[in-house]
Please model this.
Amino acid sequence: MNAALIVVALLLVAAAGTAVVATGDPARQAVTLSAYGIVLALLFLVLQAPDVALSQIAVGTALVPLMVMLTVRKTKK
Model:
């Protein structure tokens, strides 16, 4: 069962990564990047790395998309 859970998590990561790349608008891409960060954190939890998952939630899900959104907002003015 553990191997099946890992495979499902990897497929979710692949789908979320593809969604980030396929998104054209930078503002929407920041939102999909945040969803990708959540899926990566889920993968890290499945792989029994809770410390890395917490770091991913803080950095990959919150800070990086926020910085991208602020940059997009600043450059559009």
About this structure: The chain has a mean pLDDT of 92. The helical segments are 2-22, 26-46, 50-76. The two ends are 51 Å apart (CA to CA). DSSP finds three helices and no strands in the chain.
